[in-house]
Automatic annotation (TrEMBL):
This is Ubiquitin-like domain-containing protein. PANTHER family: U11/U12 SMALL NUCLEAR RIBONUCLEOPROTEIN 25 KDA PROTEIN, U11_U12 SMALL NUCLEAR RIBONUCLEOPROTEIN 25 KDA PROTEIN. The lineage of its organism: Eukaryota, Metazoa, Chordata, Craniata, Vertebrata. Gene3D superfamilies: Phosphatidylinositol 3-kinase Catalytic Subunit, Chain A, domain 1 (3.10.20.90). PROSITE patterns: UBIQUITIN_2. One of its GO terms (biological process) is mRNA splicing, via spliceosome. The gene is snrnp25. Residues 59-151 form the Ubiquitin-like domain. SUPFAM superfamilies: Ubiquitin-like. One of its GO terms (cellular component) is U12-type spliceosomal complex. It holds the Pfam family Ubiquitin_4.
């Protein structure tokens, strides 16, 4: 029994060492000029997105709430992303930001997409399967988050 407990303690210590090593490595990566815009508690997903941006494999779509003066959210998606990909990336962006800053812990995305929609150039992005480029959306373009008008 004691032997099993010692093994568990050793595994926990080994895990803690690997985790610390991983975090130190990420911290060094984030100091790189290419990745300096990333937060200190960066995820591997965010690093991949930043590298994809640098190589032209991804683009930043800025998402702004129509009724809010704050700066738009810079959401990274692959070049051939669909509207659904943008919605998923926006959800992930908001979740990561909430984890880091605290605040509202749960957002009903189902309700949100029933009540709001994204628009670009006055056109609603209603077809989730349609590619962003089909709507004319390019790197650094801004889409707006607006409340749907009931008929």
């Amino acid at each position: 029994m004691e032997e099993e407990e010692e093994e568990e303690v050793e595994e926990e210590e080994a895990h803690a060492e690997v985790l610390e090593f991983w975090q130190e490595g990420l911290a060094r990566l984030v100091r790189d000029p290419l990745l300096c815009d990333l937060p200190a508690q960066v995820t591997p997903e965010e690093i991949s997105s930043q590298v994809a941006l640098e190589y032209g494999q991804a683009m930043t779509v800025r998402v702004r709430r129509a009724d809010a003066p704050e700066a738009p959210l810079p959401v990274v998606v692959v070049q051939n992303a669909s509207v659904l990909d943008l919605k998923r990336a926006l959800r992930r962006f908001v979740q990561l930001r909430q984890e880091r800053e605290g605040g509202i812990q749960h957002i009903s995305w189902r309700y949100l997409w029933r009540t709001y929609c994204l628009t670009f150039g006055g056109e609603k992005l209603t077809d989730d399967r349609k590619k962003l480029r089909e709507y004319g959306i390019r790197n650094r373009d801004e889409v707006t988050f607006v409340k749907k008008i009931r008929k």
